Amino acid sequence: MFHTALAARQGLTATEEKALDLLDRYGPLTGRQLAQRSALAPASVTNLLDRLEAKGFARRTRNPADGRSVLIETTPDRLASLGQLFTDWTRELEELTGKYTDAELAVITDFLTESARRQKNATARFTSAAAGKGQADPAAQAGGRPAGTDAQGIKGEGDIPAPGA
Fold first, then answer.
1. In this model, does residue 7 exceed pLDDT 90?
2. pTM of the model
3. In this structure, what are the phi and psi dihedrals at residue 10, rounded to the nearest 5 degrees?
4. DSSP state of 115
């Protein structure tokens, strides 16, 4: 709900805001890379980029590693305008963390990290078991989208791997 409200405040859809989040986290990506990280079809990424360019949030640039392709990157000044909307949320999180000792925060972090790892493993087992038993593809059962994605095909916030993961 937070990201939907944040997106709406800037005239963006939740899908557009999540794509900007991915570009902010990982830096410039090719269309294929953005499609893989967002679980969107390549044609959907093309339309998404067209909308983000029209709104001034992203641009296409030549890929220096491969002149035949382009990279999608954010427009820094427009992205900075989104950051200002996080001021209150960041302050509230700082207040919350102030209630805990460093040792308690380490336990909380460990628990959340381990929970996310176990969820990822359980998802992998589920999808492997379904494929191995000839069961229907979980993506097909989810309306044609991969498991763990919303109606726009974007992975949930907790499902987006951290850089280097």
1. no
2. 0.59
3. -105, 5
4. H
